[in-house]
Amino acid sequence: MAYVIPKETYSGKVASMTIGEGAKSIAIGGENTMPFLSFEGAIPNRPVIAMEIQDITPDDWPDNLKKYYNGYYDDAAKWAKFCVEQLNAKAIALRLVGTHPDKQDRSAEDAAKTVKEVLSVVDVPLIILGSNHIEKDASVIVAAAEAATGKNCIIGKAQEGNYKTIVAAALAHKHKLIAMSELDINLAKQLNILITQMGFETDRLLTDPMCSALGYGLEYTYSVMERIRLAALTQNDTTMQPPIVGDVGMYVWKTKEVSASEEDMPQWGSLEERGIAWEVVTAMGMLLAGANLLIMRHPKAVEKAEKVIEELTKG
Amino acid sequence: MIVIGEKISIIAKKVREAMTNRDPKPIQEIASAQWKAGAHMIDVNIGPAEEKGEDLMTWMVNIIQEVVPLPLCLDTTNSNALEAGLKAHNNQWGRALINSTSNEPERFVMLELAARHNAQVIGLTLGKGGLPADAEERAAIASEIMARAMEYGLPLEDLFLDPLILQVCTMQSHAMHAIKAVRMFQELNDPPMKTVVGLSNISNGAPKDMRSLIDRTFLTLLMHEGLTAAIMNPLDKDLMAVMKTTDIFLGKTLYAHSYLEM
């Protein structure tokens, strides 16, 4: 008797959405099966990787990462253009880290200006992120959302402490929105409920259950993401159907393993390869757990992750 | 759990009058209220409908599905009326459920209709010999209904077994028989057989202000045994809250503080 592949059938489906405007807009989500199991269901869109840039010169990126952006990182628009034109970035994630009170405390107006400059030079979808400061983000993201009106961006991250203002901005300026909670599946669901109760549609919402790097809690993120996906697919839980975001780069590039020197750690091998591998492996973990959108930093790590996605999605 | 809204029934005076006068509004309002309260399916009980049953069922199906995007549970002993309802049913919202067949020969026609119209059907474990004495007798009748379903070419996953809920105020021991039967039914097949109850039968005859309490407590016990669906009152907020909370305990729904609002 011929071998029959055992298949699961799912009652739910991940929400699908388009981000960006024009020829380079991208669709994400829409699958009704677990990641890469295309024999079991439909996976209309592949996961997307956005390359991260910042509004100020990064002061905490290791040299092995920073050197790729030499001559660009002092100007967000230049940096964005470089990523799109030279590194083939399919999407850009602009992190307005300079607005954090402990960094340069840039104003919401400054942030809005940076957003406009970046949008004037790139045609790929833009993800606009705050500095992860609850109070400051509320004003920064609102101004950034207004500056990007009509560009169908993803803005975020809306958290329990500031979601009302940020959701209102996403509604007013017609953006997609990332809702973030801290490694707690029940709070992730609760935040999604609160946001949709404000009249924000599930198919405009993305969920970020908080990423973590390999060796620093990756397994917790993996479990939460996978549980979100299973609730969406097996229980048809509409509140858990938004596409998942994995904010990989920011967690990877602060670990000891990507910066400890070869002199100090000769047994760990090449420092640069180590960093790239760390980001790729973390990214793969997120993809296998169900992430639809990754935010990454190292161009070589992005390239390798894209290749793995290519191989897992072809044919 | 699948909630089948029970409020559109010929037993209710308002519904009966609307049926007689062919006045769609009251019926549509009740259907819509049940849908908004969280019903997944609407029961349409037109009784024996001996006169103009076909017209009545067709009209009911049409006016209800005009206002709610849900499948219907067609509830009548008149097989011609039932077939007319199946023909009118809009499967875009899901497949119809026939209420019901049993192990009485005059009800076998319902299996035939289900198979012919790609509908699902409730199998009430009631046989020629009157009320089943206990859970074992219910399971024995269930097996016969399953065998009959297969004869008619109806897939077993389209059959919902109903243990026949009897009122607790006069037949107390049957509450436990029905609970046990729900468990036994599932063991009759792999994948497990689906189960359904007419929930409010349990509180029939009890004082009005105690009915909701009796219904919801009984529902929890049935759900713990793996009940698939219940014909019940979705407008009873306490009952719906208990159902959602039980689904949380059973791991069928992911917890969030606002789970009752979903």
3D architecture notes:
Chain A is of the alpha/beta class. Chain A has a single domain, classed as TIM Barrel, CATH 3.20.20.20. Chain A is 38% helix and 14% strand. Chain A has helices at 63-66, 76-85, 108-121, 134-147, 163-172, 185-196, 218-234, 248-252, 271-289, 299-313; strands at 16-19, 26-29, 48-54, 92-95, 126-129, 154-158, 176-180, 205-208, 245-246, 293-296. In chain A, the strands form two sheets. Chain A has an eight-stranded parallel sheet with strand order 8-7-6-5-4-3-10-9. In chain A, strands 1-2 form a two-stranded antiparallel sheet. In chain A, strand 6 (154-158), helix 5 and strand 7 (176-180) form a beta-alpha-beta unit. The radius of gyration of chain A is 19 Å and the shape is globular. The mean pLDDT of chain A is 96. Chain B has helices spanning 13-21, 24-36, 53-67, 79-88, 109-116, 135-151, 173-186, 208-224, 237-249; strands spanning 2-9, 41-45, 72-75, 97-102, 120-124, 159-162, 194-198, 229-232. Chain B has an eight-stranded parallel barrel with strand order 1-2-3-4-5-6-7-8, surrounded by six helices. Helices cover 44% and strands 16% of the residues of chain B. In chain B, strand 4, helix 5 (109-116) and strand 5 form a beta-alpha-beta unit. With 262 residues, chain B is α/β, with parallel strands linked by helices. The chains are: A alpha/beta (315), B alpha/beta (262). The interface between A and B is medium-sized, with 15 and 9 residues.
What are the salient characteristics of this protein?
heterodimer, A: 315 residues, alpha/beta, TIM Barrel, eight-stranded parallel beta sheet, two-stranded antiparallel sheet, 10 strands, B: 262 residues, eight-stranded parallel barrel, 8 strands
Précis, in short:
The complex is a heterodimer of chains A (315) and B (262). Chain A is built from ten helices and ten strands.
